[in-house]
Amino acid sequence: MEHNYARYCCVVIGQPSLNLPGAPRKVTDEHFVDLWTKLADHYKDNPNLIFELMNEPCGLSATIWAETMTKAIRGIQSKAPSHRILIAGPLAATVVTFELRSTPALLPLLDLATYPGQIIFGMHQYFDILNGGTKDCLTWILFEPFFKTATDNLRKHKATAMLTEFGGGPNDACAKIIDKMLTFFDANSDVWVGWTAWSNMYGDQVISRNSSSEYYALTKVMDKYAPLK
């Protein structure tokens, strides 16, 4: 997975018109394809890997970004034709913005799959007013329509998705909304094939295995759906 928002040194991959004035270099689609082709060749013998092309692409043209990802997918398939590939749209690829900002440009990429389910949509979602996981979580009723719309659209196109980042603070509100979301995923497992929680070592975005920690609240919820052995 790349985690630079489709940029390298503030230069947008394949979209030079969006570069900051005076940017020292240009990063082309060919650079991006070369990277992923080499990674795919290196890891081609590990069938458990999923290649996530980019984490949280933002501030770019979804249509041009889809063209860039198309080239990268073909590069990966030339070396690791059976590996699954995660793709993501702009605006940090949130579930809330998926229908409006990602669907039109990204759905055609499903045709690149060599078998059903090879191309997976990666999305993120936080549940506070800033969509950053640092404020109090809101209620599921505000987000459920977006999850339902995305799910129905993906199912219509026989597509699958993973929520590759979510999280929240150590409080009941965040625990409740994540519980409802994971229940939703279980009920729609033909579309939602996986999820990954985000945790870091600062602020409130921490997940703890210590049952006496205040940060155990979210872990306890997630253990219901994916218990750690």
From TrEMBL:
Ranges for domain Glycoside hydrolase family: 28-200
Gene Ontology BP terms: glucan catabolic process
Listed InterPro entries: GH, Glyco_hydro_5
One Pfam family linked to the record: Cellulase
MF annotations from Gene Ontology: cellulase activity
Protein family per UniProt: Belongs to the glycosyl hydrolase 5 (cellulase A) family.
Record's keyword terms, sorted: Glycosidase, Hydrolase
E.C. code: 3.2.1.4
Root EC class: hydrolase
Catalytic activity from the UniProt record: Endohydrolysis of (1->4)-beta-D-glucosidic linkages in cellulose, lichenin and cereal beta-D-glucans
Summary of the function given for this chain in its UniProt record: Has endoglucanase activity on substrates containing beta-1,4 glycosidic bonds, like in carboxymethylcellulose (CMC), hydroxyethylcellulose (HEC) and beta-glucan. Involved in the degradation of complex natural cellulosic substrates.
Parts of the chain that traverse the membrane: none
Keyword Hydrolase among record annotations: yes
Keyword Hydrolase annotated: yes
Protein name as catalogued: cellulase
